[in-house]
Amino acid sequence: MLSSKFFFLLNLITLACFAGLVFLQVVEGQSYFMGLGDFFKF
Amino acid sequence: MAIINKVLNFLILIFAIAALVFGYQLFNRRAELRSHSDMLADSMANVVKELDVASERNLANEINRKDVMLSTSELGPGGKLGWAFFHDQLDASGGYEGFNTKVLRKVEDYTKDVRTQRDELANTLGEIAELFGKEEDLPNTAFQSLASYDGALTALKLHMKQVQHREETFTTRLEEIANKIGVPMEAGVLNDVANFEQPFQDLVDNIDQLNTRSTDYVNTLAKAIESMDSHEFTVNIELLKDKEGYTDELVNLQNDFSRINDKLSDFDKVNLDLLETQNTLERTITQLESAHENAAQVESHLRNCMADRSTLKIKLSRFEGVTDSPIDERMAQNLQGRVIDVNYDWDYIIINLGKKDRLPANVEMTVARDREFICKVLVTRVLDKYAVADILPQLRQGLVMEGDRVIF
Q1: Nearest-CA residue of chain A relative to B30?
Q2: Beta-sheet pairing, B372-382 with B364-369
Q3: Residues of A with Cβ-Cβ distance to B23 under 8 angstroms
Q4: Whole-model pTM above 0.90?
């Protein structure tokens, strides 16, 4: 049985990865002249 | 801890949704970017194709785009505008200088070459327009500008056609002139741009000679008219020299020559009459000369007869012992006189002896000059102080002159 602390660390790492991914996407979007608002336009 | 994990899970879900949404938007952007890149590449490939037309460089075989993601080795000829080739040009410094050098710079240089060609063509056309006096209407920039080059070319072509038409007209007319002045030119020889100068110079020389000859004709005619002052010409010399009024004067000149010809015909008739008269006169002169010779002979014979008669008469007197003169001839033998006058027409002289000197008639006396014998004379008439004596042609040695001595 894995401890809750392990999941906490796993969640923390996953969160960091997603946060980094979003950060990179935002940065890339800026190179395409996209502001944050542009990501939410469909 | 469970609550924190739940919060973290919730945050992860939020970031995951955000990543998904952002990824979707970025995907669209990348597709848009790719489309943009492809369109640019296609356009560039089309530009290269257009530039290749008649350029004989065939850069389109090398610079084009293929719609497949192939590696460089699979591209074959061309395809350098494709994404894969661009991707393969990534160098160690993280740049794409290879793509720039192998593709973009070639296209730029190609474009610059074509532009240079355009500018040089425009400059050349401008120089041609300048050569034909159209530098103000058709400057170099008129051929460079896309807005004006079409009109400029049309204007230049129209002008060149006009110039060509003018040149053809000149050539044709010059050949006609050459034919008219009697020195025909070889057909089309003036169209030879490399060798037209000599035939043209020949034509100019011939025209000069014709002009000189025409001027000499006019001047000679004018001098001839002025020198023939015995005929009153109706021709006007000044109008004869005039290039427009000379034709009427030539008609007048012909009429003058006709009248002169009539006069010459009359002169010929008069000349014939005169020649005939001259012949008649010569015959008459010959007859007169013959008659004169006969008369001289008769006269000489007559004088001889007279001398003979005188001599016979003297001898008869001696024979009969009677003289016409009361003076004895012997008494007169000491007389000596001088010739005081001579008549050469009738050959008699007058001497300064007469009856007062007891000079008898019908006696012969001698005429002498110093010791020179001149002739014999016969005293035919004796006056008181003078006597007349005929010159006897016999023994005549010279011409009797006044002052000559007369002795027995």
Answers
A1: A32
A2: antiparallel
A3: 25
A4: no
